[in-house]
Write a structure and sequence with these properties.
GO terms for molecular function: voltage-gated calcium channel activity. With about 190 residues, the chain is an alpha+beta fold. Helix content is about 15%, strand content about 30%. The protein has four helices and eight strands. Strands 2-1-7-6-5 form a five-stranded antiparallel β-sheet, covered by helices on one side.
């Protein structure tokens, strides 16, 4: 008996505007008997987002947010998702020296003022916890409670996030993916020996 491992991926390419229109149309459909939604993304008191498993916005009411990290737009909600374990933060390290060709030689010179120092950078990244299909949360802000729900879209790496806009949580600030330079504390002898 011969066994074969078959793996494949199937995709479709479409314009973002078409995909966004399909998303907004689908988000307006309700299972209620009368067809009326009790909560709708058309409501000004609610923000709806479609994000991927790394937290990047695919669809938002504000088109300029497309491609932006969700934590930049909704810092309080992203912080809560990380603290609840729905998303995990990890660091990707980048070392400049590892990109240099190691067989290159440099003529040593004496008396120069050049000092070599390590140049490592960490880049924060985020990934969703795939076992969580739906999460509901509340965030205690200064004078109110902000509610949200995040739900995985079946058979995809996408999540729909619905947030109550009636509570301002701007005191939390954004969650960014800005790089972090690693600073080493080395004395002059250690630096010169690198």
């Amino acid at each position: 008996m011969v066994c074969f491992n078959v793996s494949s991926a199937v995709g479709i390419q479409m314009k973002l505007e078409f995909f966004q229109r399909k998303f907004w149309t689908a988000s307006r459909q309700c299972a209620a008997l009368d067809g009326k939604c009790s909560i709708s993304c058309d409501n000004d008191d609610i923000s709806c987002y479609l994000i991927d498993n790394n937290g990047f916005i695919i669809v938002a009411e504000d088109l300029s947010l497309t491609g932006v990290f969700f934590g930049e737009a909704e810092g309080a909600v992203m912080s809560k998702l990380v603290s609840m374990g729905s998303f995990k933060r990890f660091l990707v390290e980048f070392n400049l020296y590892s990109w240099w060709y190691s067989d290159l030689t440099i003529k040593a010179q004496r008396g120069g003022k050049t000092m070599l120092v390590p140049c490592d950078t960490e880049y924060p990244a985020f990934v969703s916890e795939r076992t969580i299909k739906e999460t509901v949360g509340n965030i205690d802000c200064e004078s109110c409670v902000k509610s949200f729900v995040i739900q995985q879209i079946p058979s995809s790496n996408l999540f729909m996030v619905v947030i109550d806009n009636t509570c301002d949580c701007s005191d939390f600030g954004p969650v960014t993916m800005d790089p972090i330079e690693i600073m080493y504390i080395l004395n002059k002898k250690e630096v010169l020996s690198l």
